[in-house]
Write a structure and sequence with these properties.
This protein has 13 helices and twelve strands. It is an alpha/beta fold.
Length: about 375
């Protein structure tokens, strides 16, 4: 089997696996305990907090551990807007965000009377920053835009949007699940106030992620999980020491950066092959990460391919790929139902071998 579904989840790096085994064996105490073992685990956890903070230009005190990007998105958006209702009840997001952002927004619309503006993408899957800026109003409390779209790989104009949010004193949240470690992120340069990341997208373990919150101690956030005071009282629950340490190893490892050029070559190779056989490339041809390639092929039953082929990939995003509805992201970029149903998302990782891809039946 050939794994082409790294955007859904990546396998563990050998270095991460080693650290996980060590930590599950040795770091079994509660990191909140006052004894030597607890203190030693707590110290290692703080080192990982520092490593993550450093990787995005933040302070250690601004990083919270969560179970992944879905939870980070929930804590960022619900946590911020529900604790600051008086600042405004209008939120701007895009219509091609990950399902979890859309679900949070629908919840806020329905249960808390927030007004949400969903900015549609341009035909290439890239949001026009001008559309976001012109939707900003007096009572806009938050803008939430993903850095890289999970179905198309399109990179969104985060810097321009961040600058405008800063000027107007609007909080800016970025879902960076698909972009972290693939595009450089400096939260100060980009004026990002909250950033969600996930370990399993960067070859770390599943079930662990982080949320960056600028000036965490001075920002009012409503907890989503009430607990015994862990994570500044914002996210209760005993910290998952082995998962955090595995996450830290994945962040420190240079594998993603080192393999960037190789993945670029794979992406270009497939783009040219697919176009030659009459397929279309749904991913943009500018401003994209090479790790994700969305394509449609003539007379192609994508569902059949995804569910039975030895090439493991997704139809749309993995979380919704068993959904028979056409992908809302592909619909948003103007693809009709038949093209949408004939589309697959291929996503590549450090050990994807270009020679294996020659065997993809549509490439021969
Ligand atoms: C853009 C984006 N946001 C959020 C998520 C959810 O991440 P997690 O599985 O860590 O909750 C994903 C995962 O597919 C994603 O691609």
């Amino acid at each position: 089997m050939i794994y082409l579904d790294f955007a859904a989840s990546a396998p563990l790096l050998p270095s991460v696996k080693k650290e996980l085994f060590r930590a599950f064996e040795e770091e079994y105490s509660n990191p909140s305990s006052a004894h030597k073992l607890g203190l030693s685990s707590a110290e290692k956890i703080e080192d990982v907090r520092e490593v993550i903070a450093h990787s995005i230009g933040a302070y250690k005190s601004e990083i919270l551990f969560t179970s992944g990007a879905s939870e980070s998105n929930n804590l960022a958006i619900k946590g911020y807007v529900l604790a600051n209702k008086k600042k405004g009840k209008h939120i701007i997001t895009s219509s091609i965000e990950h399902k979890c952002i859309l679900s949070i927004c629908h919840f806020l619309e329905k249960e808390h009377d927030y007004e949400i503006t969903y900015i549609p993408p341009q035909q290439n899957g890239i949001i026009d920053a001008k559309d976001v800026i012109s939707a900003m109003k007096q009572d806009t409390i938050l803008v939430s835009i993903m850095y890289v779209n999970n179905e198309l790989g399109s990179i969104q104009p985060i810097e321009v949007i961040g600058k405008e949010c800063f000027k107007r004193n609007i909080k800016f949240h970025v879902d960076a699940a698909q972009s972290y470690k693939k595009v450089p992120i400096d939260v100060d340069e980009l004026n990002i106030d909250m950033l969600s990341i996930s370990a399993h997208k960067i070859y770390g373990p599943k079930g662990i992620g982080a949320l960056y919150i600028r000036d965490l101690r001075e920002t009012r956030i409503q907890p989503i999980i009430h607990g015994a005071g862990q994570e500044y009282g914002l996210r209760g629950g005993t910290l998952a020491t082995p998962l955090i340490l595995g996450f830290g190893t994945a962040v420190k490892d240079q594998t993603i950066e080192e393999n960037f050029e190789k993945i670029n070559i794979i992406n270009s190779f497939l783009r040219s092959k697919i176009t030659k056989i009459g397929g279309i490339i749904n991913s943009p041809d500018i401003n994209y990460i090479p790790h994700i390639l969305n394509i449609s092929l003539p007379n192609f039953d994508a569902f059949q391919f995804v569910t039975s082929s030895d090439f493991l990939c997704s139809q749309g995003s993995a979380c919704s790929s068993l959904n028979i509805e056409p992908s809302y992201v592909l619909t948003a970029i103007g693809l009709n139902h038949s093209y949408s149903r004939a589309s697959v998302r291929l996503s590549f990782g450090y050990n994807t071998d270009i020679n294996d891809l020659d065997k993809l039946f549509f490439c021969t």
